[in-house]
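Figure-free illustration: sequence to structure, shown twice.
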Amino acid sequence: MPWLGHAMAFRKNMFEFLRHMQAKHGDIFTVQLGGQYFTFVMDPLSFGPILKDAQRKLDFVEYAQKLVLKVFGYRSVQGDYRMIHSASTKHLMGEGLEELNKVMLDTLSLVMLGPTGPSLDTHHWREDGLFHFCYNILFKAGYLSLFGYTKDKEQDLLQAEELFLEFRKYDRLFPRFVYSLLGPREWLEVGRLQRLFHKELSVEHNLEKYGVSNWITYMLQFLREQGVSPAMQDKFNFMMLWASQGNTGPTSFWALLFLLKHPEAMRAVREEATRLLGEVRLEAKQSFKFGALHRMPVLDSVMEETLRLRASPTLLRVVNDDQILQMASGQEYLLRNGDILALFPYLSVHMDPDIHPEPTAFKYDRFLTASGSRKVDFYKAGKKIRHYTMPWGSGVSICPGRFLALNEMKLFILLMVMNFDLELVDPDTPVPPVDPQRWGFGTTQPSHEIHQEYTFRHRRSCRTTAESRQEDLNTGKEYIEPCKTEPEPEESTVL
């Protein structure tokens, strides 16, 4: 269609559209989408020159600035992109990351147990939607850890819950908002939600809170020094809330669902955690060996496999000046000034059967070697490939908060599998398909909810009779070993 080009088919289902185009046109093709030309490169062996871009002729920042102005209302200032990466290097890695890990652990405990700790009925089985359960917990824990809290924990949790409900409203509208496909009432709703978040995340409210993360504080200090108005700083906070919390909940949902659908993976994660951490008890208030998070190859493999299957970012670069792109095959193609160069690693890398045999299957040990260490050697067409997964993007557009996000999700999964008995309401329910509107927007979301049952393990972890073992075997539940009377080893780690 004139001007629109293939926009309607692309927006309806980006994955299927690009798969069809690749089958028809090969590993590089240009399509018109709403008046703009996009050149998609689908051969991962040709990604190197694009991601390195030694000549700096492919601009990520220009496109990002236009997008954040549209969806968050934030108008970028000179140097803020480099500042965000600098702040993330300083406060989301190394010692800064360890400090945030401790805060995140305490906040997860607060969100999962409440301000007064475990109640008397925590041994009862409860039912909840798994997606809502994961997204809700991760959002509230992340929000309180990064943007601070008051002295009233109960009120903090209520405020975080209300904010999550509004966040989900915005989240549901987000894909069509980016593509300008909202109806009149939806445009009004987006405006209302933006104003609400600008108010709730205002720098004025920051002054009333304790524990605002050093990461947020550092970035706001930079904006103040650049003369950015408080109103624009509020919009910056909204952008950072979205960047930090928009994907952790959905990713944790998929990881937990895959573990529930694959008991052998659940057992492997629990065995690894027990070996490294001892008995992990959510309700206790003692030390946690955060160093163990870096020595858990099984859990790392589970998370990497989950991200391979469900993370679908689009990497975009604006082409500055006409230039020649040489593919790995030796063929050369002209990239035109003003066009946009695009990579979609989910299709071209994650789902490539040459790189990942049986690409649609969940294999918890896909990223483990025979000796149990992390596997990093993957091949395409007989050549070792560097970018064998790209859930966080790559190059200049790689997610600066990836280490915090990954640790946050790993902590959540550990707390869940070590402190709760979990099962699906319908064990035979299939893994839901991806909502097609979410392709290209970070971690995908399910097309419908999946329901789980869960109960706190501290009431069920002590089994003392043979009948209890037989009961588990008869019901198909995982057998829990009887309590041991000898004291716990010194290495035992509790939360």
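We now fold a second protein in the same way, so the two outputs can be compared directly.
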Amino acid sequence: MAHSVSVKIPKLNKTIEVPTGLFINNEFVPSVDSQERIETVNPATEEVICSIVAASEKDIDIAVAAARQAFKTTWGKNVTGWERARLLNKLADLIERDAQELAELEALNNGKPVKMARDFDIGDSVQCLRYYAGWADKITGQSIEVDNKSKLAFTRHDPIGVCGQIIPWNYPINMWAWKVAPALAVGCTIVMKPSELTPLTALKLSELAKEAGFPPGVINTVPSLGPVGGAALASHHDVDKVAFTGSTVTGRKIMEAAAKSNLKKVSLELGGKSPHLVFESADLEQAASWAALGICYNSGQDCTAGSRVYVQDTVYDKFTSILVDRVKALVVGDGLEEATGAGPVVSKGQYDRVWGYIDSGKAEGAHVLVGGEKRQSKGYYVDPTVFTNITSDMKIVKEEIFGPVLSVGVFKTEEEAIALANDTTYGLGAGLHSNDANQCMRVSSALEAGTVWVNQYNILNNNVPFGGKKQSGIGRELGSYALEEYTSVKAIHWNFGDKLDWPLY
């Protein structure tokens, strides 16, 4: 049975060879007990790209065993930080070499524009790998004074072990790098479950990991349905940590499974309903551009999408006029076409979900300022839709949509703006625009979110931590903080002078 397929891209007049098996111990293999396949679909054409092997629970067991063996023998504490750094940098070099082909495959399977995938997602992923390569030989503990005459203590930051990593479909390559880089830097091994909607680039990246020279079992990739593969990893007794990016509903299930199995460490980056505040002193032209980016980038399929914009009443009319012009200027089309600035949403299920919310907004009395009309052509396209005349109890205001749908409200005072922003069960991101420095400090401090942007939006850096509050998750990715998610601290007490008298009295 062949474990690869040639995928033709007529629009580009080229063919990409794509692996279709499970990647375990540096080989692409079939399932040990299942004939089930996952069909991947091009959201721009609604056509099947190819089908790949769907991992079963037994396949997960085999992948975890491979990761455990590698952790005990060829990885973990058995290689130096310098060697881990060398391999991470080599992997970054290979991804950079193949950036164009990876971007084309990402556009084909996910729908996003090639240039966005190549220059932003992949460019950032290369930086992420190199950033954590720099950390690999700098994992240090502390020397702690206890009694200089007879005792000392010190700490070690040990790799936590085998990590189950479950990544979403909105940034398939970027989320792969966010999870893989810190885990490998500290010496963990990985069983990666990509989304069943977008598994193709994770499989191509697995090829590059082997080419880079990572030992067998260090990185294993097991495409699978969430209730099968994801559930198996979350409840597995030989997985030491599970990292998940996705919905809050699924995050709860993972946390429960982790608690009921072996109390494995859990980090969760979950949903959001992020607010974006525009004060009267703001540069409205810039604020409108950032607000448009906040909801239109990646077709709104972003955990931090700025889906609730609140504008001070004195500048509301002027701001919304500029915002409409910004939104209308965006070209939404096939990601394989050069002029495209945003592609279709990822799947038929997501398309139906987003249109359900647009219909709900109309039914509940919100006013459509722009968008809100379906195309009569193939592809899961949703043109950016902006609602005004909103109320806080509307579904479009309260619930995460994960599409290019924006609710715009109004406020009079700073206190009201903060109250509106924090009126959500989520706490992932928030933004504010103001040229009053004191106001920027007050409001950024008051906003209940893991990340707050001031006079910009949705820009992340690999050396700055990212994560949520409230129901947006626990733990942090990026920066030095992510290393803590993949290490366990061991305290060692060393007695070199005290003698124990016995018996005790």
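Summary for the second example: DSSP finds 15 helices and 22 strands in the chain.
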